[in-house]
Amino acid sequence: MNNSNENLKRHLTNRHIQLIAIGGAIGTGLFMGSGKTISLAGPSILLVYAIIGFIIFFVMRAMGELLLSNLKYKSFVDFVTDLLGPMAGFFMGWTYWFCWIVTGSADLIAISGYIEQLYPGLVAPWIPALLCVLLFFFLNLLTVKLFGETEFWFSIIKILAIALLILVGIFLIIYQFETPSGVTTSLSNIWNDGGIFPMGFTGFMAGFQIAAFAFVGVELVGTTAAEAKDPEKTLPKAINAIPVRVILFYVLALAVIMSVMPWRTIDPDKSPFITLFSFAGIAAAFHITYFVVLTSAASSANSGIFSTSRMLYGLSSSSKAPKIFNKLSKASVPAYGLTFSCACLIPAVFLLYIGNDDVMKAFTLVTTVATVLFVFVWSMILFSYIAFRKKRPELHKKSKFKVPGGLFSIYLSLLFFIILIVTFWFEGDTQQALIFTPLWFVILGICYFLIPKKIKSQWKPFSESE
Known about the structure:
It contains 20 helices and no strands. By secondary structure, it is mainly α. Residues 1-5 have low confidence and may be disordered.
């Protein structure tokens, strides 16, 4: 191991950053969860995804302006520590680490479930999850560039799958294909059955609860700041492309799906991707879709392992985590943090994988917990921006990457997150998550007060620690 004076190396190129950002914007929920979101909200789900994407864009722009205001910031935890204080940085860093442990556990459970559905009884359910942890551990251990390459190709597969769905759907719409149920494919199928809001305001709001999880990971590009070549060019480019990606990957894809299949005919428990490809006579639709879903879940798990190791490295650098996590391997990888994060994923797989019914309930619960925690992370980025505008007005004035709409956009985004959390209370599964999630902050609070004063005295302002 190298000593702690060594820094993370900038080995991620522009194409890595762009595809990592795209991969973060395309969640597994789009492939497997879109049927359920459509059944809840009807065609208004298009507006749901557009609104969430709109808000997330402001969060990312705020993150981008802050990261570029000081290139010594290795991730968003650094600017939270600098602008809101060491205690805020402690809560932010460990919460983000826990976010990805929870999400990674859910992804591993999903991978095992998908393989069981594809090849029933082939292997014990825990084996694929364990193999994934080991595979991603060794991939991330070698070099950060290898992580970038892995995510690059994972993202390419997801992009091609969505592009194929859109092209197949457009072809079916143009030639007015008649589905097995006797319905002709047409854009009018989107609004012909009850209009855009057939499930009313309640259904519209219910769509936000599930759709929000699809955007988890979009901020991942912020954890690559310390390892990105030429961040002043690559980060703005990746962030500015978010609206286009949301329109293309979510709004356009779901609009095509609902044009081909009237929204009431879509099975909430099945992927509409499989059904649409089947309509087109693609016999391998089932296996193609599950391959893409497996890729998507694997990509998310791989990203989680990467980000948790970097988060532990950053926390350790500022004495908010054990010093051992601050040591880098010869390949400039935080190997101890990587090992610890992977070790935390393994027992979660064994504990959660009890039976199919329990797994699905656990999966829903942990993904909702992750969403609530990510909302906390996104909100902390926004609060940091508000503090930045007050404490560093000269840096904001010089910024070439200002947030569109300024503070108004920031306050609007915070209001949206408050409304989103309130809606979680009105559904059984999401209500459970709201009840359990505060326990994490109680645990963090206890840990914070148990930390010796000698260690806390080392928590200097970020600018002084550099």
